[in-house]
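Hey all, sorry for the wall of text incoming. These are the two entities for the joint prediction.
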Amino acid sequence: MSYIKVENVVKEFKVVHRDKGLKSALVSLFNRKYDIVKAVDDISFEVEKGELVGYIGPNGAGKSTTIKMLAGILVPTSGVIHVDGRIPHLNRKENAKRIGVVFGQRSSMEWDLPMEDTFDLFQKIYRIDDEVYRRNVKFYIELFEMEDFLKRPVRQLSLGEKMRAEIVVALLHDPDILYLDEPTIGLDVVAKNKIRRFIRQVNRERKVTVMLTTHDMDDIEQICDRIIMIDKGKLLFNNSLGKFKEYYGGDYTITVVFADSNGEKAVDPRLTLLSDERERKVYAANRHQIETAEALRFFIDNFKVSYLNIKEASIEEIVRNAYERHAVRLR
Amino acid sequence: MHYFKLYLQFIRIRISSIVSYRGSFIAGAIAQALSYGAGFFTTWLLVNAFHELNGWTAYEVLLLYGLNLFSYALAAFFFFNTARSLDELVMGGGLDAVLTKPVNPFLYLICNGFNTGYVSHISLSTLTIVISFTGLGIRLTPLMLLMLVLSILGAALIHASAIIMTSVPSIWMLRWNLSGILYWNMRQFINYPISLYPRVVQFILTFILPYAFINFYPAQLFLGKEDYIFHPALQYATLPVGCFLFFIAYRFWQYGINRYQGTGT
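and here's what came out:
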């Protein structure tokens, strides 16, 4: 049986139905209507031991809800989750000993103290054997290159340094699985690269199964073996990084500002018009159909152009393009 | 044992943190002492002006004040922070973080949430209780001293239950601020002997919101008062009432957590 097995999982939330305006707000005070929102809608996937899986999708796609169900925090409305043979919410504490969780937007560090104090606290929480604890602290401080800022109060650390400490704290009890919710959010490029390298190393050297949610295409390309993509609670893609790039990797957008009104004639079947504000137009394209150089030439040679910009597609755009262009090939 | 070690660790962390904010800690303690000192003083003035309240002298009313404040401080020391910030804990993901750990969330939050700001309450209320007993020339026998300790423990459990029960709905209501009205203000009611109040209020404070067990009934025991309201045995009931309420409060807390997780119970 697979290490993590998610079968037809649905998670519904009941939210108060709200219409605009004061009047309907007052009405809802007395006559409440509820909407059932499906945060996760019939999702199934499996993860093998030692894999490094990227769990991606736009904001509100249901990524965090899935992670919370895997961690045993939330209970699925229907469907079954098995992690290492256990149902997480029925064995929350047992499951918790085997997992490490980092929520990128939230700190578990003691703000006013050096990180070592939080480490000590986690030793007590997870009842980590002294010997194992000392060995792991030493190992991760070296691996994550943290000697320089070990003694500084956490509040004085940079975001990247803090994130490294957060990840280490989640690893001290030798978990088999590490769930990372947006581990690179808000970091600069250098810090992001470091975090990515560390995650890779932990996965390789400690055989930790890693599942991470992200918004960052570079995170995906540089560290994940496999991609699971969801949107609006539904599974859109579940395959290797290679396949992912084949399907979606070449997506890019071109923003053009035309110097005159001739821009209306800029039509090519390989360029999909995404937004049109008179002179300023945004196109979506794919490398497999038209190389960036050719696309540039198309605009520069044929039109008077005052601004041109080419950008790799973001996850939001990839998901949107997935609906428009790859709908048939999904799953 | 696990939670005791965890608790000690949290205490160490909190003390180390306080050291880096020493000024604010001291200022906070002084401000609290001033505000509760004012409460103490008005009670004193009021009772002195009337000489007595329904057969209760100033020193006796001070005992009510002291017992109420001491047991409140004891309960609030452990529960105030967690209860007060429960909605933030839910919205900010703090509760999720606790639930990813192999711990009982209730015990964990108590270990983590203790509030060091109650040093001034404890000292002020201890002083009040001592003043009251010396002023009245009462010397407590060892048995009565034990009863005092047990009653304060029970009273603290009653306060704790009230703090917990009024805050649990914020797990699912998020912006829940009725706790102030339901509890924080109600607490003032029992700074005076409840024998003063109409029968219906006495009934409520004994059987519905049993705050009278916090100070009125045990004080009757220590002071040898005989203005029984319902039954003399109630003087001994503070600890059992506290345990019972705390049990209910804990079950209500679990209901709140289950509801958050969506177990459908």
